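Tutorial handout. Part one gives the primary structure; part two gives the three-dimensional structure as C-alpha cells.
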Amino acid sequence: MRFLKTLLLFTATTLLVARGGNAATAQQLQTEGQAALENLYAANPKTRDLGQKAYAVLVFPTVVRAGLLMAGFERGDGVLFVKGNVDGYYNTTSACPGLQAGAQTYSYALFFMTPEDLKSLKKSGGLNLGAAPGLTVADKGVAGGASLYTLQGIKAFVFGQKGLMANIGFKATKISQYTPSK
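Part two.
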C-alpha cells in the first residue's frame, strides 16, 4: 500500500510540475489554440461549421494524462475565443480514479453554442465538467452525427490523441480561469 501511495504521489507531481515548469505565455496559448482548432477542423470538416455557429470556443491545445494502477491525473492550459477574439485563459485539471496504465497527450475543444451556455463558465470562474449543463462529448467517430449540431448546449471534442492509455473508471474535471505569463 505504501508503494502505491508513493507511486501515485510521484505520478501526480510529475504531471503537474512538468507543465508548470514551462508554462505557455498568453501569446503561445493563443497561437497553439488556433492551430489546434485548425487541426480539429481539418480532421473533421463539420466541426468548422459548428465553430462558426458557436458563441465561444474554449480550446486546450495540449492536455497531458498519466495513470498507473488505481489513479490517474490530467492537466492542460487553454484559451477561450468569443466570436474569434481571445476572452480569457483557463486550465483543466482532472482526477481519474479507476484501473489504468499509460500516458498520453491530447487536445480538446468545448463549443459553447449560446451566451447562456458560456455563463456557467464565466459565473464561477470555472466549470466542473461532471456538472456541465447540456454537455455532449464526441470523438471523431461520432462527431458527424446530426444531434451534435443543435444550437444549444456545450459540445466537447477530443482529438489529436498521442500515446497509450488504458483505463476503466471515471474522471472529475475542473476548469478554472487563470492568468498566463505575458
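Part three, for discussion. Residues 3-21, 130-151 have pLDDT under 50 and may be disordered. Residues 14 and 115 are 37 Å apart (CA to CA).
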